[in-house]
From TrEMBL:
One of its GO terms (molecular function) is transmembrane transporter activity. InterPro entries: AAA+_ATPase (IPR003593), ABC_transporter-like_ATP-bd (IPR003439), ABC_transporter-like_CS (IPR017871), ABC_transpr_LolD-like (IPR015854), Cell_div_FtsE (IPR005286), P-loop_NTPase (IPR027417). Keywords: ATP-binding, Cell cycle, Cell division, Cell membrane, Membrane, Nucleotide-binding. Residues 2-228 form the ABC transporter domain. This is Cell division ATP-binding protein FtsE. One of its GO terms (biological process) is cell division. It is a peripheral membrane protein. Its main location: membrane. SMART domains: AAA. The gene is ftsE. Pfam families: ABC_tran.
Length: 229
């Protein structure tokens, strides 16, 4: 589903690579934690998979496509297959919960009937049925993150990329968010999650990939967080 072949990334004006000769493969349906100190290259890795960045060397394949050879007009089609969730939720503050999720379908040309059918299903999946008419600032942080997950998942992407999704949440709320991501993973969606949350990684016992200075230093099945910050 995702394959990096000898990928290096040196940002403009930098000499030290943010990622250095990274090779790894993530199969369909896997759940992978990406861990490492701040600056180790996790976000760079995720941004390469989204083709927000291009590698300086090496090749990135996502959903069967080599991203460097993908024409720009095909990038939106690629991104439709990848849902994204971030630490800061990124909801539209002036739209209701329903409309925040509906918007994700509208921008990809979803019909009104599809929206009316799919949005309630996904809001129920994330445990927010009954709250569809609220505004984002009328929800708790954990609930806002559930909306963000609903929005990322409503068009059933093949891959869900989550960059520190529990970074702004307390431990018990985080556990609820992880149960939800686990549930989404069980539908067959590949989940890739960058995190500094040691207790979550230790509880979930999924595959753990650790980066250090842009290099892959650990790839462990049913792994643990495994280092001190
Ligand atoms: N746009 C940029 N321009 C130049 N250097 C960058 C840029 N983005 C990231 N870097 C550098 O690349 C390296 C990797 O950064 P990256 O953001 O991928 O790390 P990270 O593991 O996601 O960190 P964090 O856990 O703090 O989010 C760091 O040295 C960082 O300073």
């Amino acid at each position: 589903m995702i394959r990096f072949e000898n990928v290096s990334k040196v940002y403009d004006g930098q000499t030290r690579p943010a990622l250095a000769d990274l090779s790894l493969e993530v199969d369909k349906g896997e759940f992978v934690f990406l861990v490492g100190q701040s600056g180790s290259g996790k976000s760079t890795f995720l941004r390469l998979a989204l083709r927000e960045l291009r590698p300086s060397r090496g090749r990135v394949f996502v959903a069967g496509k080599e991203l460097n050879r993908l024409s720009s007009w095909k990038v939106p089609r690629l991104r439709r297959q990848i849902g994204t969730v971030f630490q800061d939720f990124r909801l539209l503050p002036n739209k209701t919960i329903f409309d925040n999720v509906a918007f994700a379908l509208q921008v990809i040309g979803g019909s009104r009937s599809q929206i009316v059918k799919e949005v309630p299903v996904v809001l129920e999946l994330v445990g927010l049925d009954g709250k569809e008419n609220r505004m984002p600032d009328e929800l708790s942080g954990g609930e806002q993150q559930r909306v963000a997950i609903a929005r990322a998942f409503v068009n059933r992407p093949k891959i869900l990329i989550a960059d520190e999704p529990t970074g702004n949440l307390d431990p018990s709320t985080s556990v609820g968010i992880m149960k939800l991501l686990d549930r989404i993973n069980r539908t067959g969606t590949t989940v890739l999650m960058a995190t500094h949350d040691a207790s979550i990684v230790d509880q979930m016992r999924k595959r753990v990939i650790e980066l250090d200075g842009g290099k892959l230093v650990r790839d462990q099945t049913r792994g643990v967080y495994g280092y001190q910050t």
